[in-house]
Amino acid sequence: MQNFVISVIVMSFFLLMCLYGEYNKKPWLRAIGKMMASNCFIYIAFSSYWYYDVPDYLRLTMVWIIIGLVCSWWGDLFLLSRNSVIFLLGLVSFFLAHVCYIVAFIFAQVDWYLTISAMGVSLVPAIAIAFWLNPNLGTMRLPVYAYMIIISCMLSLAIGAWAYGGLWNLPVGAIIFYVSDIFVARDRFKTADKWNFLIGGPLYFAGQVFLASTPIWIS
Fold it and tell me: What are the start-end ranges of the H helices in the chain?
């Protein structure tokens, strides 16, 4: 646990650096802080897997979570740019990250009844967000809608994994991640201001930490 706490403190330092760069319009500082913070959640995943006794039935779950975190790292890198093509690469990277998380949760085993129920509930905010973004999406409409579907599936399966095996950190991380993406969408398609990352950034990294640290909460 000490190693985890130190890692979170180091991540918080780099996140503060990133937020300072965002607030003061210093893109280079924002980029360094963001990518170093992203390195931290990958380190947390590897160190948690290494130092904690992971049950055999969750080993593949952690492997897929780590792959998802690596995809997220690339997404973080691509989203530093406001170029639409590079943004699409970021969207694809996070799409793949959510596919990896979905596979991870399935390997952890899920309560399918609650998963399907959660999917039905998650459609409500997804449809509302789609209507909110739709006038501004342009050629990005299909990629964004596809992303919304996959992140809703990821959230629903996280809830199902919690219901089946008691892995409470998975839905917590997934919900926080979901909310953080609303601010990414607001920044890209509605109102581009510093508050999107100042609020969404900490939520995103917190969500990734909850997923990356899964072995800690099962030990």
Answer: 2-23, 27-51, 56-78, 84-108, 112-137, 141-165, 169-185, 194-212, 214-218
Residue 86 binned pLDDT confidence (cut-offs 50, 70, 90): very high
DSSP per residue, 183-208: HHHIIIII---HHHHHHHHHHHHHHH
- In the DSSP assignment, the letter for residue 139 is G
Q: How far is CA 139 from CA 88, 130, 148, 151, 189, in A?
A: 11, 14, 16, 20, 12
Q: pLDDT tens digits, residue range 94-126?
A: 999 999 999 999 999 999 999 999 999 999 999
Higher pLDDT among residues 52 and 208, named by residue? 208
CA-based nearest residue to 186, from 203, 169, 170, 171: 203
Please name the residue that has the structure tokens 């180091």. Answer: 10
* CA-wise closest residue to 147 among 98, 193, 107: 98
Domain ranges of the chain: 2-218
| Tokens linked to 61 | 């779950």
Q: What is the rounded distance in angstroms from the CA atom of residue 96 to the CA atom of residue 180?
A: 17
The answer to whether the CB of 211 falls within 8 A of the CB of 161 is no
Cα–Cα distance, 188 to 118 (Å, whole number): 27
- pLDDT by residue (tens digit) across 37-61? 999 999 999 999 888 888 888 899 9
Q: Which residues contact 188 (CB under 8 A, 6 or more apart)?
A: 87
